[in-house]
């Protein structure tokens, strides 16, 4: 079976080599393989209901939702916020994703 992915995956081999890492892909239509992604989609849906036309959502609205979610305590993070965990790692010498 041949599976086609969007352009967002087109450079995964180069990225994997540059980061000395491995890329894994979920099987299409297997949402249970992407648990965190599906959970986050559910959190976003608290602000943008299922029938919302995203063309009408402003950048400011998206930024406000992002800020709320990044500052919302998560059980899985020991009730810390994603913002706290990300920036604590950035200052402690621990590795964090996409740190600039």
In short:
With 100 residues, the protein is mainly alpha-helical. The protein contains four helices and no strands.
Provide structural commentary:
The longest helix has 12 residues, at 59-70. Helices cover 42% and strands 0% of the residues. The protein has a domain at 7-72. It is an all-alpha fold and 100 residues long. The mean pLDDT is 83.
Provide the succession of SSEs.
HHHH
Largest sheet: none
How many helices? 4
Which structural class is indicated by helix and strand composition?
Answer: mainly alpha
Oligomer: single chain
How many angstroms separate the termini? 38 Å
Q: Taking Cα atoms only, what radius of gyration do you get, to the nearest Å?
A: 17 Å
Q: Helical amount among residues, as a percent range? A: 40-55%
The best one-word shape is: globular
Number of strands: 0
User: What average pLDDT do the residues reach?
Assistant: 83
Please report which band the strand proportion falls in: under 5%, 5-15%, 15-25%, 25-35%, 35-45% or over 45%.
under 5%
Which blocks of ≥5 consecutive residues have pLDDT under 50? Answer: none
Show the helix and strand layout.
Elements: H1 12-19, H2 35-45, H3 59-70, H4 82-92
Keywords, please?
100 residues, globular
């Amino acid at each position: 079976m041949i599976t086609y992915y969007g352009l967002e995956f087109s450079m995964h081999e180069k990225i994997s080599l540059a980061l000395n890492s491995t890329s894994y892909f979920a099987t299409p239509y297997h949402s249970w393989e992407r648990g965190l992604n599906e959970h986050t989609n559910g959190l976003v849906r608290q602000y943008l209901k299922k029938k919302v036309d995203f063309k009408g959502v402003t950048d400011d609205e998206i930024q406000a939702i992002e800020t709320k979610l990044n500052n919302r305590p998560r059980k899985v993070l020991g009730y810390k916020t994603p913002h706290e965990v990300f920036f604590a790692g950035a200052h402690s010498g621990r590795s964090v994703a996409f740190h600039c």
